Structure to design on (686 residues):
């Protein structure tokens, strides 16, 4: 069997159902040592890929959650200023020479490792997840480019830190803004869409093995039908799983049996007031009826 | 999966065929360098090259860089390797979700001759008579009489176009507000920069004598422009396109769309460094140019497919339209309200407002008014330029 099929199989063993696209992209990214950029709507399992990969390889998962205004101090490294100031003061009272103090306070002891630095200083290759890269601003992308291309970080006071192990890098984005071409070109790319019926069914069976086949078929059919409705927030796979948990938790054996209960479980799928209003009891019942 | 690649006699070997494929992708607008060709060959070495499905997945991961390209890749792949898609090993995985982007026939585009085919524009349906009598919409309306049969691209002089672009760039620069979350060194800043203070304190024996400060700099707003290119707007389309090009060129985050009966994203086409190809792409996208307008429908598409990811609290949405809508007016109002809930500001620029005695009588326009942050004339370049201070205040 081809190596990427093995990988797909292993992922499934660890509870992640990956499409051919994704399995191949992940396989290539591991083989070629290139970062993998995953794009897709919220809740299709982008972040999960990294978690499962770390699990699979028995590697540490280092996660960097991006946000607007993320800077080098929070992503790469920072000096521990309070300790430095205290050390300077204490040393001054002991009459230590300036050069000694400087050498001491700009040493490892006073360095705070942030995820990117941490990731390249591991003994074994970790999985580095850079989540929602499109939320960070362009300046940060530029830092990242430097690190992703040669896996070295230069700290002016300490010198250049070379990677002891090359991390497997996974970046996720959901289109808050366009990423620069330079970053895209450094990465392999896979786009994750909403899964089709068969795949979603497989995911559901992996995650909730106890569910009746009839009910899980209904749940998947219902969510798939709901995605075709005109909603503000289309439910993702994560929502499907929550919904299944809610339905199972309420002890329902058929979606159509109790309209009130079904409507109550919709809180797991519809996350805005407008969306709730768009799916009244009648529509939910009709969709559930068709999903059977 | 029986789609075994057949090499035509002229190809020397796999490397050359792959290089040819990369050239084929490049011709179709994918941005690929020499590095990618090397990566593609490397990637092929790790898969079974006789299996078309495997090869396609591998090349897709290497060659594509965004959702649009990934969606188009299968067709491009089939066109090159499988004799124009006669054989399709398997359907595209994960493609079951509704098409996020309007796909344009890029293969056809590559074959088509250079930039012909916009055809002669329709005459403006609304208010042509008014233009001839009152002649206030200076930029174009005054010239309507002799331009009835002229092609769109000759509609205005190159100087006008250049000026429209320059105006747009100025406006894009003017719409700056909302402070950034990132801190920058600033002597009058609000917060102390501990990093620099600690560094400076070393020199003074641990006494932090010089206090460095940081502040949050101003950040430009994110501009999204929607241009109406329906029949009643064709006379303005050329200038406004130049205006959009200016907006998109001045700001990497700006985003531009055309709409008539459907909505097309043109940001990438406007950024295309090859002007001839940009015209080609736009021409194809603008099919239906000069037809009816469905503003409500176009906005609904925008809300559904693009707004979610691209419009936020820092966005300014600029709609360039005359408000003549064939959809019911309440649809337009509802979609505007929905857009508004994303926290953006909406500016409507209406070329007809430049005309004397124009009141927003179009029913669509009347319905839209309550949801707008700013409603202004845009029939002349002067009017566009006059917007700068107004928009800067928003």
């Amino acid at each position: 069997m081809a190596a990427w099929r093995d990988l797909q199989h292993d992922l499934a063993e660890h509870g992640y159902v990956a499409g051919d696209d994704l399995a191949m992209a992940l396989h290539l990214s591991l083989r070629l040592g290139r970062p993998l950029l995953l794009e897709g709507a919220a809740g299709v399992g982008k972040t999960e890929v990294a978690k499962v990969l770390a699990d699979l390889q028995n590697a540490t998962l280092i996660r960097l959650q991006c946000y607007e205004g993320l800077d080098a101090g929070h992503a790469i490294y920072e000096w521990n200023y309070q300790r430095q100031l205290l050390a300077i003061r204490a040393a001054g009272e002991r009459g230590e020479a300036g050069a000694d103090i400087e050498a001491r306070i700009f040493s490892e002891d006073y360095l705070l490792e942030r995820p990117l630095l941490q990731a390249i200083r591991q003994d074994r290759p970790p999985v580095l997840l850079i989540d929602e890269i499109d939320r960070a601003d362009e300046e940060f992308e530029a830092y990242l480019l430097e690190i992703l291309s040669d896996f070295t970080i230069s700290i002016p006071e300490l010198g250049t830190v070379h990677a002891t192990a090359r991390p497997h890098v996974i970046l996720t984005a959901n289109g808050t803004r366009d990423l620069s071409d330079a970053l895209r070109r450094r990465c392999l790319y896979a786009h994750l869409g909403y899964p089709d019926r068969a795949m979603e069914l497989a995911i559901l069976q992996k995650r909730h093995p106890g569910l009746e086949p009839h009910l899980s078929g209904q749940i998947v059919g219902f969510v798939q039908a709901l995605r075709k409705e005109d909603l503000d927030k289309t439910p993702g796979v994560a929502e499907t799983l929550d919904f299944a948990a809610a339905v199972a938790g309420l002890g329902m054996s058929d979606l159509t049996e109790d309209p009130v209960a079904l409507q109550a479980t919709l809180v797991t799928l519809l996350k805005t007031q407008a969306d709730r209003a768009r799916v009244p009891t009648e529509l939910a019942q009709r969709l559930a009826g068709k999903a059977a | 999966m029986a789609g075994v690649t057949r090499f035509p006699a002229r190809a020397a070997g796999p490397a050359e065929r792959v290089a040819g494929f990369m050239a084929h992708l490049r011709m179709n607008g994918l941005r690929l360098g020499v590095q990618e060709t090397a990566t593609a060959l490397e990637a092929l070495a790790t898969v079974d090259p006789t299996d078309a499905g495997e090869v396609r997945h591998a090349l897709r991961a290497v060659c594509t860089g965004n959702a649009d390209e990934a969606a188009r890749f299968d067709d491009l792949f089939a066109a090159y390797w499988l004799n124009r898609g006669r054989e399709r090993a398997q359907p595209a995985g994960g493609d079951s979700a509704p098409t996020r982007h309007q796909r344009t026939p890029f293969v056809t585009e590559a074959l088509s001759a250079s930039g012909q085919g916009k055809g002669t524009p329709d005459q403006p349906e609304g208010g042509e008579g008014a233009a001839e009598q009152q002649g206030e919409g200076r930029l174009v309306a005054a010239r309507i009489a002799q331009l009835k049969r002229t092609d769109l691209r000759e509609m205005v002089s190159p100087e006008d176009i250049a000026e429209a672009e320059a105006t747009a760039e100025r406006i894009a620069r003017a719409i700056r507000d909302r402070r950034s979350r990132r801190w920058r060194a600033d002597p009058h800043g609000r917060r102390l920069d501990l990093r620099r203070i600690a560094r400076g304190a070393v020199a003074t024996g641990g006494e932090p004598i010089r206090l460095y400060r940081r502040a949050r700099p101003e950040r430009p707003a994110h501009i999204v422009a929607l241009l109406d290119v329906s029949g009643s707007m064709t006379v303005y389309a050329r200038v406004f396109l130049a205006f959009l090009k200016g907006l998109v060129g001045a700001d990497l985050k700006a985003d531009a769309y055309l709409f008539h009966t459907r909505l097309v994203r043109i940001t990438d086409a406007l950024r295309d460094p090859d002007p001839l190809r940009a015209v080609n792409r736009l021409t194809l996208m603008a099919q239906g140019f000069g037809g009816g307008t469905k503003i409500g429908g176009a906005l609904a598409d925008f809300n559904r497919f693009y707004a979610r990811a691209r419009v936020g609290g820092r966005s300014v949405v600029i709609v360039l339209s005359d408000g003549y809508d064939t959809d019911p007016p309440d649809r337009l109002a509802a979609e505007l309200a929905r857009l508004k809930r994303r926290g953006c500001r909406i500016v409507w620029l209406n070329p007809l407002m430049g005309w004397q005695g124009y009141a927003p009588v179009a029913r669509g326009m009347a319905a839209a008014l309550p949801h707008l942050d700013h409603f202004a004339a845009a029939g002349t370049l002067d009017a566009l330029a006059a917007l700068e201070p107004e928009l800067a205040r928003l």
About this structure: Residues 1-5, 85-155 of chain B have pLDDT under 50 and may be disordered.
